[in-house]
């Protein structure tokens, strides 16, 4: 009888101990899970690198810069002879010497038949050669340039060449030759040509020309 009671007590104690152990184990598991959840919440995700598509990149600026030169024609009036400039546009990549050559060849080709302006440069005048160096711009024209016309015509054609060949500054030296020979006298009346010519020097020596810069 006593043995049975001891056995019952032992069983009860073991059950109690087992319950405590299970309870403790459950508490440990709950604490571990809670601690893990808290750490998981505190860890911030690492952002993945953003790939920039080509469409997100800024478009390159358009190249709109052009080089504009002026061709000088004549508009005779009752009181004076007017130099009329007509713009001619080139791409900025074109070499300056090529721009100048095209400008002079356009001038020598005569104005359109329906143009309101005219020219004093004789038809058939050709640009034989063109070069630039430290001394200035060297223009070699064919013999037709000095043919025909009086003093007004001679000074007018000289003005057209000098103004068209000059850049922005009035001090650009222009050396003019005819068939390879430096131009010293122009026309039968023997207009003296001082070499090199510039816009400023031409205005001082000849004058009487009004300059009209047209936008078209």
Topology:
Blueprint: H1 2-42, E1 66-76, E2 81-91, H2 96-108, E3 127-133, E4 136-141, H3 151-165, E5 174-178, E6 181-182, E7 185-186, E8 191-192, H4 199-205, E9 209-213
Parallel strand pairs: 2-9, 4-5
Antiparallel strand pairs: 1-2, 3-4, 5-6, 7-8
Q: Could you tell me the mean pLDDT?
A: 74
Helical region count? 4
Reading side by side through the largest sheet, how are the strands ordered?
A: 3-4-5-6
Distance between the termini: 132 Å
Strand content: 15-25%
Summarize the helix and strand pattern as letters.
HEEHEEHEEEEHE
Low-confidence stretches: 2-11, 13-33, 46-64
Overall morphology: globular
In short:
The protein is an alpha/beta fold and 216 residues long. The chain has helices spanning 2-42, 96-108, 151-165, 199-205; strands at residues 66-76, 81-91, 127-133, 136-141, 174-178, 181-182, 185-186, 191-192, 209-213. It has a domain at 66-213.
